[in-house]
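This section describes the prediction task in plain terms. A model, or a person checking by hand, is given the sequence of a single protein chain and must write out its three-dimensional structure as a string of tokens. No templates, partner chains or ligands are provided. The sample shown here is typical of the held-out split.
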Amino acid sequence: MFATTNLGAEGVGDMLPPHARNRIITVRMRKPSSDEWINNYAINNDVHPSVMGFVREFPQVMQSFTEVNSPDDNPYIYHPKRQAKSFCTPRSLECASDILHQREHLSDDTLTGALIGTIGERGALDMMAFVKLADKLPTLESIKTDPMNAIVPDSASAVCMVVYRALASLDKAWIDAWFKYMGRLSKEAQGLFALGIKPDTYKNKSLVTTNKSFTAWCRENNYMFGADKC
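The expected answer:
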């Protein structure tokens, strides 16, 4: 059996008397890094590409307040010295993802207000920049049906969002089309895709690693990973 609790410094009253603590084993867990959260959780759980792009661009949203000397050093996260009703955590970021999946039903003002109430003002305003960026991404349908002519975004952040969206939604029907499209992306973006499929927890790992187009890509690009194997 296991249970989770908060740090005493968070001031939420999760305290046990010594005789109760003596009956359990306590282990302090760290928060995931931005890459760990994206690759091991977000990609596999339908987190919105705008949220993944935001987290990659602002990895400090995964910091613990114990790593921050002053609350002003990281305006995105919870800090016991700052009174904030909303802030970025893995939990609130997933809630923001649920809101973004309903974007077609929301005005920009409503969406911004909802995000402010979910991840805080600073996080919401920065995330909205990625929402606007997502409007300029190629549609999945265009990649599936015409990979050699589908739009390739100009900005690195937009390309990352395209890669994360593909990792999250790939299936057998269009994986070959994806690799044709991926060949038009920068080597850095191709490497980002390869890193995304490396974790054993990746839901489409066998689909990708057994694909002839991917094994051919590995042979041509194995220099990118040194001792690592695709």
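For orientation: Residues 121-134 form the longest helix (14 residues).
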